[in-house]
Amino acid sequence: AIDDEVSDEVEKLRETVLKMTEKQKRVYELHFIEGYSLTDVATILNVSIPVVYKHKEKILKFIKENFKRG
């Protein structure tokens, strides 16, 4: 059923996030979950905007790679 598929996908995403580095988890949480802009994330984490963009790219690549495996 669709609910089971969604539950499986959510669980897989949760497991993927747990495998991220602490910095990646924080960027993921602030940007993708809490909805902060990348500029705001940079300010909150006291890092440069390019650093946040790099983390975002790595996060998206990591998620994509982990979902390909399943």
If helices are DSSP runs of H or I spanning 4 or more residues, what is the number of helices?
Answer: 4
Low-confidence stretches: none
- Estimate the helix proportion, in percent: over 70%
Mean pLDDT: 91
Based on secondary structure, the structural category is mainly alpha
Structural overview:
- With 70 residues, this protein is mainly α.
- It has 4 helices and no strands.
- The chain has helices at 2-18, 22-33, 38-45, 49-69.
- Helix 2 (22-33) packs across helix 4 (49-69) and helix 3 crosses helix 4.
- The protein is elongated.
- The protein starts with a helix and ends with a helix.
- The mean pLDDT is 91.
Task: Describe the structure in brief.
This protein is mainly α. The protein is built from four helices and no strands.
List the helices and strands and how they pair.
Layout: H1 2-18, H2 22-33, H3 38-45, H4 49-69
Helix pairs in contact: 1-4, 2-4, 3-4
Features:
single chain; 0% strand; 4 helices; 70 residues
